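Supplementary Methods, section 5.1.

A reviewer requested that the exact input to the structure prediction be made available. We therefore reproduce it here, unchanged from the version used in the analyses.
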Amino acid sequence: MKVTKHKRFAGVYWVELEDGTRKLATVNLAPGKKVYSERLFKIQGIEYRLWDPYRSKLAAAILKDIKKAPIDQGKSVLYLGAASGTTASHVSDLIGSSGSIHCIEISSRPFRDLLVVCNRRPNMVPLLADARQPGSYCMLIENVDVVYQDVAQPDQTDILLANVKAFLRRGGHAILALKARSIDITKKPRDIFRDEIEKLEGELEVVDAKILDPYEKDHAMIVLHK
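The structure derived from this sequence is encoded token-by-token as follows.
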């Protein structure tokens, strides 16, 4: 088994497994603890977690060769739609103990699982809140380096822009996991992606966009700069 650093994404590693296949991984900030039954392994005293692109849209975007994934050591992140914490836990690994991630989730069932994950990771702060109402948590969060959103709602672009306006510092980045079928089931996903990107371009610079098939059907990942 061999581990090498990813050439473009800090904190992301390639792991060559026993069968010769290569998988993404991050260094586990909570050694010995799994989040979603991912495989853990140690090499030279460092524990790594395999990062499943079928369970994490951010991993899928990296495998699809997105130009930039602006999440690394020391960054502050606002994560909208954290669910049970699968991708958020890998973001936690990437930003390290010097970074911070505020995790917004509206549904109580996944939030209970998120609490367990956050309890093991000191850089994660769980908030049971509605991402549509950034004013309800604005007193708890200062300006951040990255707003990451995975909220499958018809107004998901508007939700992102409201939180970017409230929390993203100038020069920061936003990452949107856009689900076409949550916006309109009658239109072609590529047409929806184009329309939503045009809306975003009115407020932010679009750095890159990738369709996430085959890892996530009818999804695109969009990276933006303020």
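The chain has two domains: 2-52, 58-225. These observations are discussed further in the main text.
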